[in-house]
Amino acid sequence: SPPAVVAPSILSADFGALGAACSDTIEQGATWLHIDIMDGHFVPNMTFGAPVVTKIRPHVQRPSAARGKGTFDCHMMIAEPKKWVRDFQKAGCDLYCFHYEAAITSTAAENPVDHSEARTNPKEMIRYVHDNGMLAGIAIKPETSVDVLWDILENPKQEEIPDMVLVMTVHPGFGGQKFMASELPKVKALRERYPELYIEVDGGLNEETIDQAAEAGANVIVAGSAVFGAKDPATVIKVLQESVEK
Ligand code: DX5
Ligand code: ZN
Q: Which key words are in the record (predicted)?
């Protein structure tokens, strides 16, 4: 099975000292950085865009291998995921994780300026992210059935296969929400069919909820408030990591 990865979500970090927060969390044992991009449209909250990612990139060493330490895991909670691929690649994103729900509704009608850029579908999006030199992730909200993913994962075209699936365990938009154990059967179903797949869980993960998520088969653990709100973040990171490894 794939390695355990702890990806602190910088949504709960001090935005006034973001560079230091990023380098600190890597020093404290984090494997990746989970970077939440929100556009106030796909989700009812806003964060920041590519310019901020550009500024924090020098604070964290680039991964030496695909999905290695220092990976910038950008969680794109945005209505037009295709539009920002190039900007995020230039900013230093390593893994561009878009939402399935945005990819299927991102139609030309929503972007009258550039129809070709906006019209997309999940498989095309994955190919487009790969063509732009990044790993591709696909995320599903709690409302979305895991069944939409089978066709995408079964695709014989290698370049259209995602490098990671993100199963949301809260409704996206805010940190510090309650973990939804109701989403774990999705993780279990994915793990049963795909022993090597990178499966990420995001929302409400902490020392209390980690065991259920790990048991279901998640190997990439996002944690925002649990890490950045802790007195001793290194210990929390270690507990999350070891809970997946055991
Ligand atoms: C929620 C974000 C999460 C969030 C998790 O929309 O995608 O990454 O930061 O925060 P916690 O770990 O506090 O639930
Ligand atoms: Zn996230």
A: Carbohydrate metabolism, Cobalt, Isomerase, Metal-binding
Q: Which amino acid is at 88?
A: F
Binding-site residues, ligand 1, Cβ < 6 A: 9, 11-12, 34, 36, 75, 170, 172-177, 202-205, 222-226
- CA–centroid distance, 230 to ligand 1, in Å, is 15
Catalytically active residues are 36, 202
| pLDDT tens digits for range 28-57 | 999 999 999 999 999 999 999 999 999 999
Give the nearest ligand 1 atom to 11 CA. Answer: 9
Dihedral Cα 51, 55, 57, 59, nearest 10 deg: -160
Cα–Cα distances in angstroms (integers) from residue 168 to residues 70, 200, 211, in the given order: 22, 8, 16
| pLDDT greater than 70 at residue 117 | no
Could you tell me the pTM of the whole model? Answer: 0.95
3-state secondary structure of 185: helix
